[in-house]
Inverse folding.
């Protein structure tokens, strides 16, 4: 099984989601994470962001990988 490494890229984020949206989705999985913790993790990991309509968006897939790594370990 091949794995892909995440790397920052220039351009728009294909699967944008706000932190609040991600927190709500993670809460539904049974593995909730507080908004402040998810923001800290994203900052520590250097995740890409984009701004649109006054909101900061992150890549949903990058947040999912980050959440899994921090919740279950690598």
């Amino acid at each position: 099984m091949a794995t892909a490494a995440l790397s920052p890229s220039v351009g728009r984020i294909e699967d944008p989601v706000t932190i609040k949206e991600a927190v709500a989705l993670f809460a539904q999985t049974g593995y909730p994470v507080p908004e402040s913790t998810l923001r800290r993790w994203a900052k520590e990991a250097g995740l890409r962001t984009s701004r649109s309509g006054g909101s900061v968006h992150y890549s949903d897939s990058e947040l999912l990988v980050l959440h899994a790594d921090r919740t279950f370990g690598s």
Notes: Residues 1-10 have pLDDT under 50 and may be disordered. The radius of gyration is 12 Å. Residues 60-72 form the longest helix (13 residues). The helical segments are 19-29, 35-45, 60-72.
